[in-house]
Design a protein that fits this description.
This protein has 323 residues and is of the alpha/beta class. It has one domain: Alpha-Beta Barrel (TIM Barrel). The protein is built from twelve helices and ten strands. It has an eight-stranded parallel beta sheet, covered by helices on one side. A two-stranded antiparallel ribbon has the order 1-2. Strand 8, helix 7 and strand 9 form a beta-alpha-beta unit. Helix 1 crosses helix 2 and helix 1 packs parallel to helix 11. The two termini are 33 Å apart.
């Protein structure tokens, strides 16, 4: 495992981190299997774990707290997220700070997450949705600084809405946030346009989420793929999205280097960009942990292959099913 500096925090975080949504919010989750996967990731050098109160109403946070307590003395960076008060993902232009993150709500969920984790503090607190217009309302800034001053967390970040990397550039340029979490993968390359240059200029850490495009870039989706009704993917992969996703994944197959898999190629593509601090694939099984973390050892892709993959950029706009 290789490590990168997480922006101005100076933390040395693993290039491949751990996204914990699937451990609580997707069908088929099993706590014992999840614990084995988490422990294996730590053994292989992963030290950055990203969760949220919304992942199972704190269930994922409980699992991460277990990992920390089971490994005293290990350097584990704990990142979680405050849910919006209106519980709407993504946020919308008309949502105000009072709709989503009034000061008392921020404090309530910071303390709730700490209780779930069973820890005295965490490293990174993030707003689970974001609107750049909120930069102008300093109430969240004052509350965050108050709570940070109490030693409840060390850094603050924002999680940017799907397919809206522009809607975070103002926050980065303001100097008020230490980190951004954004969708970035072979298809979603638009953070490179404005967001990444702003992060590099302000020394802001970048967490690349959804590296496999919700499963498309694992190469396992087919036109017949189905999920239980209570699984988030059943509402995301509507027929129009599933068809387009499968077609675009199939177009990548000829580019996969011999001896490599599509998921490895997807992770290594992201590693090519120096703005990225860590990537957080979702992993529920030990075999997925072992294969995904191995991408760090393999390193970035050769430039000629990355140039070819850049031609597969897929610019999308939020829609009713994209959440």
């Amino acid at each position: 495992m290789k490590y990168r500096t997480f922006g101005r925090t100076g933390w040395k975080v693993s290039e491949i981190g751990y996204g914990m949504w699937g451990l609580a919010g997707w069908s088929g989750s099993d706590d014992e299997e999840s614990k084995q996967a988490l422990q294996r990731a730590l053994e292989l050098g992963c030290n950055f774990f990203d969760t949220a109160w919304a992942y199972g109403d704190g269930h994922s946070e409980h699992l991460l707290g277990w990992l920390v307590r089971a490994n005293p003395g290990k350097q584990i960076y704990v990142a979680t997220k405050i849910p919006p008060k209106n519980l709407q993902w993504p946020s919308r232009r008309e949502h105000t700070l009072d709709d989503c993150y009034p000061p008392d709500h921020i404090e309530k969920y910071v303390r709730s997450s700490l209780e779930n984790l069973g820890l005295p503090r965490f490293d990174l607190i993030q707003f689970h949705t974001w609107e750049d217009s909120w930069v102008e309302d300093d109430r969240w800034v004052k509350k965050i600084e108050d709570l940070r001053g109490q030693g409840l967390f060390r850094a603050v970040g924002i999680s940017i809405n799907r397919w809206e990397p522009w809607n975070g550039v103002q926050a980065v340029r303001s100097g008020l946030v230490d980190a951004v979490q954004v969708i970035y993968n072979i298809f979603d390359q638009n953070p490179e346009d404005e967001l990444f240059p702003a992060c590099q200029a302000k020394d802001v850490g970048v967490i690349a989420r959804v590296p496999f495009d919700e499963g498309t870039l694992t190469g396992t989706l087919t036109l017949d793929s189905q999920w239980p009704k209570d699984d988030w993917r059943s509402s995301y992969f509507v027929p129009e999205n599933l068809r387009a996703s499968v077609e675009r994944a199939e177009a990548l197959r000829p580019l996969i280097p011999k001896g490599t898999t599509m998921p490895e190629m997807a992770l290594r593509f992201i590693l090519n960009h120096p703005a990225v601090s860590t990537i957080i694939p979702g992993m529920r099984k030990v075999r997925n942990v072992e294969s995904n973390l191995g991408a760090s050892d393999a390193g970035p892709l050769p430039e000629d292959l990355r140039a070819e993959l850049r031609m597969h950029r897929w610019d999308r706009s939020p829609t009713k099913w994209s959440q």
